[in-house]
Amino acid sequence: MNAQFVERKSKDRGHVNHDWLDAHHTLSFASYFDHKFKSFGALKAMNENIVQPNAGFGTHPHREFEIFSYIISGELQHKDSIGNIEILKPGNIQFTSCGTGITHSEYNVHPTLPVHFLQVWVKPDKSNLKPRYQTMTFDKFSKTNKLVHIISPVDYHDNSTIGINTDFHAYASLLEPSYKVVHTVQGTEKPRKVYIHLMNTGGKLNINERVILQKGDGVFVTDVKRGDEIVFESIGDEVVEFVVLDLA
């Protein structure tokens, strides 16, 4: 495998702190812009957010994006214009295919605890799709020392994953110290891209004996193809929680 690895250190990400919101941006987003990190294939935003109690994002519009939120800790209330109201908790993946247009709000209604979540924006292959909302739960047990498939292309997915409207796969893991998991690159289009993000919660992750990530770090992997293997080993003293995004 002739993969290229480009690290994205946590300290180098875009960072804003508005008291109610502490956000880190891997890619250019809102007021943060870096011409070297505008997008990564169909991946357009990778934001790690902490929202304080009784605060959040008021009602706002989206269109022509696939957006999913991965709850790390706390609770996040989602409301949208197609009738969905839900409080999301750790293990929940909330997915919105915005299509022709949707408005939604994301609010921490908990009186005392912050909510920590990852939000990812992906560009679909098709436009003018009907808006769609879906949640699935991947609990701690299902992710511990395993790499769990959570999102896959809508044309190929089954009921065990959330379907997305592009050539994109997402996986999640909680890896205890000294444990290893292996990701086999998916898709048919060559070459592929992979982005790995380690949640800002602790631990160390060794990837293919090439890169070591610490909390909040990520790495862009290019020049991989279907069938290539990426090996992850937890080498710190804490559990590492991470996601793997595999895309054309």
Tell me the layout of helices and strands.
Blueprint: E1 4-8, E2 14-17, E3 21-25, E4 43-51, E5 55-62, E6 66-73, E7 76-80, E8 85-88, E9 92-97, E10 102-108, E11 115-122, E12 132-137, H1 140-143, E13 148-153, E14 162-164, E15 168-175, E16 180-184, E17 192-198, E18 204-207, E19 211-214, E20 218-224, E21 229-234, E22 240-247
Parallel strand pairs: 13-14
Antiparallel strand pairs: 1-20, 2-3, 3-4, 4-11, 5-10, 6-9, 6-11, 7-8, 7-10, 9-12, 13-15, 15-22, 16-21, 17-20, 17-22, 18-19, 18-21
Gist of the model:
With about 250 residues, the protein is an all-beta fold. It contains one helix and 22 strands.
Report on this model:
By secondary structure, the chain is mainly beta. It has one domain: Jelly Rolls, CATH 2.60.120. It has one helix at residues 140-143; strands at 4-8, 14-17, 21-25, 43-51, 55-62, 66-73, 76-80, 85-88, 92-97, 102-108, 115-122, 132-137, 148-153, 162-164, 168-175, 180-184, 192-198, 204-207, 211-214, 218-224, 229-234, 240-247. Strand 18 and strand 19 (211-214) form a beta hairpin. The longest helix has 4 residues, at 140-143. The radius of gyration is 17 Å and the shape is globular. Belongs to the pirin family. One of its GO terms (molecular function) is metal ion binding.
